[in-house]
Amino acid sequence: MTEGIPTGGFETETLDLPGWTHVYSGKVRDLYVPADEAITEKIGQECVLVVASDRISAYDHVLSSEIPDKGRVLTQLSLWWFDQLDVEHHVLASTVEGGVPAAVEGRAMICKKLDMFPVECIARGYLTGSGLVEYKESGTVCEIPLPEGLVDGSRLDKALFTPSAKAEVGEHDVNITYDDVVAMVGDDIAARLSELTLKIYTRAEEIARERGIILADTKVEFGIDAATGIITLGDEVLTPDSSRFWDASTYAPGKSQPSYDKQYVRDWLTSAESGWDKSSDTPPPALPAEVVERTRARYVEAYEKLTGRTFA
Fold this sequence. Notes:
With 312 residues, the protein is α+β, with helices and mostly antiparallel strands. Helix content is 29%, strand content 27%. A hairpin with a 3-residue loop joins strand 1 and strand 2.
């Protein structure tokens, strides 16, 4: 196992990128490490090439259908957010001039190699999803008590740090408490992870709101930069795959909110038209062209509304 690189992963078709060796594939991203010492010398430290694919996952399955340009949207949006946040992050280069192979320019980043914490750091500013399920059962989210009378989409008085534990590939992450995080990484690091997560959410929620988008919740990941010992933001940040974005103009608590993500994919997979049982071991069917295009359009719309740029 290469330090900072997870084991396991998915079997996917990998790219032949001169100077780089493939070491891992997740649901969406593929990781490569330098095969040539000249690359490490040029970058100036140990690094990893993170390549975002056009793969899409739903209900813990990677679908056979891909969403055109999804990898570029996720990468370009993450890079934009990294520039907006006053937080130490892992990106070292994102252009050919910086060392990114031309074949993956636009959807790849050369990043610091981090020793990742085994915690999914989640900030929630609104009640929905798995948090709503727990609230209905016990009036809490990650055992944090909440006021009575909240509904799907209710804005919380203040954003909450509601972590989860990383599960094995293909399994659901499990919500945990702050005390669980302390037991995993210690008091000081747990406090810092909570502080950084809420700092990122608070700043991003303000920026998104200015652009007519509500950031309901987001997941971020951190690791230790071996070269500096600094807790560093890694992976992607504030994309439709890691965050729940809602259109502020249609927001109405008390119902499920349309989101800028793979909602069209989930809706179709659970429809009678797909004929697929998500509780079975059968892989999901291929997506219709219309669902693929509408999903792509939703990702692009999120990018353009947030950044104010036109996606090329």
